[in-house]
Specification:
This protein is an alpha/beta fold. It contains eleven helices and 13 strands. The strands form three sheets. An eight-stranded parallel beta barrel has the order 3-4-7-8-9-10-12-13. It has a three-stranded antiparallel beta sheet with strand order 5-6-11, with no helix packed on it. The radius of gyration is 19 Å and the shape is globular.
């Protein structure tokens, strides 16, 4: 059904199509999804002390302002992450700022944290209790004079309502944001967050989302700080500024972050790097190119404990979770695997 509708949807520019999708989900125009593997023990797992039906989450960026998360749970996602949310409302970067690369099964975006603002999003979540595990992804305002403090402002607003909070230091579309990957700046940020969470007496899990464009030595430094401060999970990874050489679409040189299939190999490599550094002490949520059972399987082999997707749903449609589970189950059964967790980090040569 979606394959027939996709050509019509793709006649709209990407941001208009996305806004229409959010409105449809917001008003409960949720398509019927057939999931023959719902509640299958082969997918059941635990995230931040909560039992979830499957390890497939929706990445931040789709439901930026927490308008449609309960409809997204009904599509089968095991967990949903909203945002990125900024302290104050902002428009983001000028349009056009999202580009489809159909031949490459990819997107380039330079949205720049377009957000309704933290208090607005908080109010929305409070008025519509989540029917599943809900994460909130936070970041600073574009013109902020103190980006570190912006994270603390958002933590105060969301610490008692989110199931987990993701610290986004990895978008390429906010100037100087990725500077937080620097060892000293990252240490200061995480120490400040830890101090505030103690003051708030909050046990809400803190997660960090990192860039795919970091060097291996940065991965080692980041891992050490994550372990020292008992961060609860790492998301690997955000969109990339590079990796354009083999793309076919004419929009490949647009400025912004590249997501989708071209990110898959780099994401898997970085997941495996962090898997070897963290040694199972911190869960890894793998993002980048997940659109099938095979791609999810590869993420688990590389060392991811969970996966997230966004671009994959743009190209595969709203039934993507059921599709991934069906394909993944076949792969697992062929390997005589009882639960997907048994393949985590078992990278095949």
């Amino acid at each position: 059904m979606f394959s027939k509708l996709r050509s019509l949807i793709f006649k709209f520019d990407p941001e208009t199509a996305h806004n229409l999708a959010i409105k449809s989900l917001k008003f409960n125009f949720v398509p019927n999804t057939f999931d023959e593997n719902k509640n299958d023990p082969i997918f059941q797992t635990n995230l931040f002390g909560r039992q979830i039906e499957n390890p497939i989450g929706l990445a931040a960026g789709f439901d930026k302002n927490a308008e449609a998360y309960n409809s997204l749970f009904r599509l089968g996602f095991g967990f949903v992450e909203v945002g990125t949310v900024t302290p104050l409302k902002q428009f983001g970067n000028p349009k056009p700022r999202v580009f489809r690369l159909e031949e490459d099964q990819a997107l380039i975006n330079r949205l720049g944290f377009n957000s309704f603002g933290a208090k607005n999003v908080n109010s929305t979540i409070r008025s519509n209790p989540p029917n599943g595990l809900l994460g909130v992804n936070i970041g600073p305002n574009k013109d902020s004079k103190d980006k570190l403090n912006d994270y603390l402002v958002c933590l105060k607003i969301f610490h008692d309502i989110a199931d987990y909070i993701t610290i986004n230091i990895s978008s390429p579309n906010t100037d100087n944001l990725r500077d937080f990957h620097d060892q000293n700046k990252f240490e200061k940020l995480i120490s400040s967050i830890e101090k505030l969470m103690k003051e708030l007496k909050s046990n809400t899990p803190i997660v960090v989302k990192i860039s795919p464009d970091i060097l291996n030595e940065q991965a080692a430094q980041i891992s050490e700080i994550l372990l020292n401060h008992k961060i609860k999970a790492i998301i690997v990874s955000n969109t990339t500024e590079g990796n354009r050489e083999k793309l076919m679409n004419i929009s490949k040189h647009q400025k912004g972050g590249l997501s989708g299939k071209p990110l898959e190999t780099r994401s898997n490599q970085l997941i495996n790097t962090f898997y070897n550094l963290l040694k199972g002490k911190i869960p890894i949520i793998g993002v980048g190119g997940v659109d099938s059972g095979k791609s999810a399987y590869a993420k688990f082999l590389a060392g991811a404990n969970f996966v997230q997707l966004y671009t994959g749903m743009i190209y595969q449609g709203p039934n993507i979770v059921a599709k991934i589970k069906k394909e993944l189950k076949e792969l697992l059964i062929n390997k005589d695997v009882k639960n997907f967790q048994n393949i985590i980090g078992k990278k095949e040569n």
